[in-house]
Amino acid sequence: MNPPLIPADLLAKSDKILFIAHLALGDYTYLQNCFAAFARAYPHLKLHLWVDEVRRTADAAQWPHLKKNVLYDWLAACDFIDRVYDQNYSPALFQASIQDARREQYPIVVSLATLRPHFYAHLAREISPDGFVTGFKKPLGFGLHRYFSYRKLDASMDPDPADRSAAPHISDVYAGWFRQLANVDIPPSGRIPFVHIPERYIDGARAKLAEWGFAGRQGKLVFINPFAKTRKRCWPVERVAELITTMRAQPEWRDACFIVNAVPQEINNVKAMLAERQLDRTELFSANENFFQLPAMLAQCDLIVSVETAVMHLANAVGVPVVALMRQKTPEWAPVDKANSTVITADQRRDWVKAIPVQAVMHALA
């Protein structure tokens, strides 16, 4: 086994470590396994996490939205993470968080930021002037500022896998990082996403199903998520209505109940679609209070149909079969649990998710 990037004696004598990352729900769905494995391997180290807000802005109108990131609900419930820096969505809060982190005098800081790694190399050293700092290093390209930023690292690694021809899953890439960093071995079976849902949210999901009249249903419960953060990964709501109608025409789905997931800015659009199509046994859902509302509802379902976003990964975490609608460009982000996942990709590499027809989903279900 190769020596770890972080010296073994430093790992043994240190009392805490700070990881810096820019995280979305999908990222953490797989990185959670890595942090948990690291915590098991080094139980004497307190694990702190800096979640950087890449949308940081001086526009105060944006702050309430940025402050309420559902990922923070999940992180707060993880017992292997001792502290989370999540207040850096404004320039002033960013500087305050840096000063707060400097007072911790971290002996080890690890940047897992793949976007602008030179910026985060600089940030890591600013937080820990005298500690051991490691992170990613990409080809310099243009600009001496990148050269000087990378010089602040005591050690570095390439964020991309050495063997690109192997087309590894993102969970394999993340596991490779932690193997290099600290000789933490995460076997394939340990890379399946997981989520521990507090009982009150499970009870809440069951109460909502009862409110909708779904508790005593005869058919299956299907969750459809057509929305992602970018248009390239979204499916038209009209296609959702067509899918529900087409499924209901099949004997095995005739008595099915449907839940359509909507992000806050699309709720009115989905409501209008449901009203216009007069789809019975079909309800609108949005996890607008707490992250755990989402996996709690997913866990109640028999089937999940989702575009390429966190929902399809959380489907694996709760063990519910998923049909994932994806572009060809991101195969490394397909759901990792192949036994419970069916992936449908758009025909052409340049196609967006909206190019996937309803019949492709029906063919997969058949």
Notable features of this structure?
366 residues, alpha/beta, Rossmann fold, 2 domains, six-stranded parallel beta sheet, 14 helices, 38% helix
Compose a concise summary of this entry:
The protein has 366 residues and is of the alpha/beta class.
In terms of topology, how is this protein built?
Elements lengths: L7 H6 L2 E6 L3 H17 L4 E6 L11 H5 L2 H7 L6 E3 L5 H12 L5 E4 L5 H11 L4 E5 L7 H7 L4 E3 L12 H13 L16 H14 L8 E5 L11 H12 L8 E5 L5 H11 L4 E4 L7 H6 L4 E5 L2 H9 L3 E5 L14 E5 L12 H8 L1
Parallel strand pairs: 1-2, 1-4, 2-3, 4-5, 5-6, 7-8, 7-10, 8-9, 10-11, 11-12
Helix pairs in contact: 2-8, 2-13, 6-7, 10-14
Structural notes for this entry:
This protein is α/β, with parallel strands linked by helices. It folds into two domains: about 10-190, Rossmann fold; about 200-365, Glycogen Phosphorylase B (Rossmann fold, 3-Layer(aba) Sandwich), CATH 3.40.50.2000. The protein is built from 14 helices and twelve strands. The chain has helices spanning about 10-15, 25-40, 65, 70-75, 90-100, 115-125, 145-150, 170-180, 200-210, 235-250, 265-275, 295-300, 310-320, 360-365; strands spanning about 15-20, 45-50, 85, 110, 130-135, 155, 220-225, 255-260, 280-285, 305, 320-325, 340-345. The strands form two sheets. Strands 3-2-1-4-5-6 form a six-stranded parallel beta sheet, sandwiched between helices. A six-stranded parallel beta sheet has the order 9-8-7-10-11-12, with helices on both faces. α11 links the parallel β8 and β9. It is elongated, with a radius of gyration of 22 Å. The mean pLDDT is about 95.
